[in-house]
Write a structure and sequence with these properties.
Helices cover 49% and strands 6% of the residues. It has 126 residues and is mainly α. Helix 1 (9-19) crosses helix 2 and helix 1 crosses helix 3.
Length: 126
């Protein structure tokens, strides 16, 4: 059950942030990479929606608390040249895959721990 026109630029942004690590990305790494790519921190809701849709569409797996591209996810990743601000290049290729309405189970506390790992509170106060 998916709408092929339902993919958003946030989904492509999160896919690119996961794809940046060949060994798989922790949630903290996804947040940090997303910030580097778009100078923005993805919200808990953005991550839960995008990661859930990417997993539901068979583009990403979650194994041992790491998010990794599946073979199909790698195929879409190859359409992106890898430039930090060019992750939107993947969006037309995502549109060919039905978007799942699946939501990744991510609590506010888990999001906060991952964010704090990426950007510790003591650094924010400086």
């Amino acid at each position: 059950m998916g709408d092929t026109r339902g993919w958003t630029s946030s989904d492509a942004w999160i896919l690119a942030s996961i794809a940046a690590s060949r060994r798989g990305s922790t949630l903290s790494h996804v947040i940090g990479t997303a910030d580097a790519f778009n100078h923005d921190i993805p919200s808990r809701d953005q991550l839960a929606s995008s990661i859930g849709a990417l997993i539901g569409a068979g583009l990403v797996d979650s194994v041992d608390e790491r998010l990794r591209l599946t073979r199909e996810g790698q195929r879409i990743r190859k359409t992106w040249r890898g430039g930090a601000f060019e992750w939107g290049e993947m969006l037309p290729h995502l549109q060919r895959t039905p978007r799942s309405g699946q939501v990744y189970p991510l609590s506010g506390e888990e999001w906060q721990r991952a964010y704090d790992e990426y950007y510790p509170p003591e650094r924010r106060s400086q």
